[in-house]
């Protein structure tokens, strides 16, 4: 696992370049996207590159990590809305080739097909991840089995609290989500993870120094051959 301690500005530019270079090298690549505030700067840089005519996403397929149960794409807190609004509406990707797990209707059945769909498209070439303060990746909370595939997950109370800032009250935060599993994420060929701010410091310490344990879901990434962790000084502050 590589670790890069950088300013937010530098990591956004570097990770965006990885995405852009991937698309230039393999125009029909499969990109993995994440939500939350961490990847927003990366998406802004990708949009900039597209607008400058540097890259086209017309043949790209994408998969997102997760979606809240109960929120449809018209809900501005749904992850589908987030992706449309913060990336897909501003680049030439074909929306039909963008996949976000469904959190409505027969979402449990659809979750079971998500991994198969990723496999059919050739697997994820490059996956970006954020990290929860409890070490979750996507919505794989502590004690999620390492062999999990896409499934419906209960959100930890710390995650509900962390994410309440995006909702008008904590009671509106969904308590369940559909999420790619830890085994699904580990199949990505290349992974980059962003962690910034003091509230990620414990999770980053567990990611980089602790045991590989289901208590810290992020720690599974130590078993992956190609992960780069981008951190700022605050997130890195508890690492010895
Ligand atoms: C949510 C998402 C995660 C994300 C995490 C951190 O729980 N499901 O994928 O990594 O939030 O969010 P932020 O980047 O806003 O700190």
Write the layout of secondary structure elements.
Elements: E1 2-5, H1 8-25, E2 30-33, H2 40-51, E3 61-64, E4 66-68, H3 79-86, E5 98-99, H4 107-120, E6 126-129, E7 151-154, H5 157-163, E8 176-179, H6 182-186, E9 191-195, H7 201-208, E10 227-231
Parallel strand pairs: 1-10, 2-3, 2-6, 3-5, 6-9, 9-10
Antiparallel strand pairs: 4-8, 7-8
The structure holds 2-amino-2-deoxy-6-O-phosphono-alpha-D-glucopyranose.
2-amino-2-deoxy-6-O-phosphono-alpha-D-glucopyranose binds next to helix 5.
Please explain how this structure is put together:
This protein has 240 residues and is of the alpha/beta class. The chain has helices at 8-25, 40-51, 79-86, 107-120, 157-163, 182-186, 201-208; strands spanning 2-5, 30-33, 61-64, 66-68, 98-99, 126-129, 151-154, 176-179, 191-195, 227-231. The strands form two sheets. Strands 1-10-9-6-2-3-5 form a seven-stranded parallel sheet, with helices on one face. Strands 4-8-7 form a three-stranded antiparallel sheet, covered by helices on one side. α7 (201-208) links the parallel β9 (191-195) and β10. α1 (8-25) packs across α2. The model has no long low-confidence stretch (mean pLDDT 97). The chain binds 2-amino-2-deoxy-6-O-phosphono-alpha-D-glucopyranose (GLP). 2-amino-2-deoxy-6-O-phosphono-alpha-D-glucopyranose (GLP) binds at residues 34-38, 65-66, 130-132, 138-139, 159, 163.
